[in-house]
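Quick start: load a record and inspect it. Here is Putative NUDIX hydrolase:
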Amino acid sequence: MTRPTRTLPVKRAAHVYLVRDGHLLLVEERMDDGSIFYGLPGGKANPGETLGDAAVRQVQYETGLTVTDLTFVSLLEGELLSGTRNECYATFGRFTAQAHGEIDPSDPEVVGVKWVPFAQVEGLVRYGPPPECEERNPLIWVPTRDFLSGEARSYYPI
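Running the structure step on this input writes:
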């Protein structure tokens, strides 16, 4: 287990792999620089909230879908964004689930929700600046790459 070298803020988040006919559901969000970010539905856990409960709540908020049969896939853990204003100790849970309902996001940051063929997911991910943004860190996407290839591990040190 990776241990922090100093006291860091803790960030806990959960994301869900929703799969249908070889497609993965991604949300489109507008970044501060105006670009579009494609990511998994999910987000930060509230204080005292389990990662599973956060996953269910955030998927509903970002997509309008209700998820059931939540199943743990993997955990990412470790220091993230070291040397930036957003450095933290991250604990990110990844789950699968069944989705029900109609796509109707209520999160104002979500500008779209789309089913993306597995082969096209990686091409939508933008790595690189700004460095303060964990979504653009390639390490965050390793578990998704493994999941899509059927080789997910249960633990990923960051």
